């Protein structure tokens, strides 16, 4: 019984708090960490102002997302029917349509409900290229966005007029 008491006392004495205070090294280390935090914060606040999204940046981002979405979808279809302001795609026996609806570009599947893929546009135009499709969007901000989508071999394009 005496041996267990001795071991417990050694353990408690070994891990008790030291009341001597901070050493110079601890204080310098904490000051160094505090200085790095202050320097980081002072230099990062002006950077936040430069990266604020303007409407032009957001419009360009919407265009890039729309173009990448339609590229991904066009490259997996079986047939493409192209008219001046409408794009019909046949994929797995389903009809997917991209067209302008007011100031929006909408995507419909089998003539059902639609999802908006881009908004604030004046005009949407599709043109046939030698091995692909050209998408032209005239935005309400006056800027014209153009993108070429090149197709893998074997996807026929039919012009509807």
Which features does this protein show?
6-stranded mixed beta sheet, 161 residues, 3 helices, 37% helix, Competence type IV pilus minor pilin ComGF, 3-stranded antiparallel beta sheet, single chain, alpha+beta, 35% strand
Order of helices and strands: HHHEEEEEEEEE
Q: Structural class of the helix and strand makeup? A: alpha+beta
Strand content: 35-45%
Contiguous uncertain segments of 5+ residues: none
Summarize the biggest pleated sheet.
Answer: 6 strands, mixed
Per DSSP E runs of 2 or more residues, the count of β-strands stands at 9
Q: What shape does the CA trace take?
A: elongated
Q: Give the helix proportion (percent range).
A: 25-40%
The end-to-end span amounts to 101 Å
Average pLDDT taken over every residue: 84
What is the count of DSSP helices, taking H or I runs of 4+ residues? 3
| Gyration radius from CA atoms, angstroms | 32 Å
Strand order of the largest sheet: 5-4-3-2-1-9
Pfam family, one: ComGF
Keywords: Competence, Membrane, Transmembrane, Transmembrane helix
Subcellular location: Cell surface
Protein name: Competence type IV pilus minor pilin ComGF
């Amino acid at each position: 019984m005496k041996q267990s008491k001795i071991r417990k006392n050694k353990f408690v004495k070994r891990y008790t708090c030291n009341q001597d205070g901070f050493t110079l090294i601890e204080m310098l280390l904490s000051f160094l960490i505090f200085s790095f935090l202050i320097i980081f914060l002072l230099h990062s606040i002006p950077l936040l102002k430069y990266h604020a999204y303007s409407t032009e940046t957001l419009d360009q981002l919407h265009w890039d997302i729309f173009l990448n979405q339609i590229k991904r979808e066009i490259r997996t279809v079986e047939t493409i029917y192209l008219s001046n302001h409408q794009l019909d795609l046949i994929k797995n026996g389903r009809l997917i349509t991209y067209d302008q609806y007011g100031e929006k570009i909408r995507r419909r599947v089998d003539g059902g409900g639609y999802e908006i893929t881009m908004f604030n546009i004046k005009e949407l135009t599709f043109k046939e290229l030698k091995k692909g499709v050209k998408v032209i969007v005239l935005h309400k901000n006056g800027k014209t966005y153009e993108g070429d989508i090149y197709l893998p071999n074997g996807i026929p394009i039919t012009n509807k007029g």
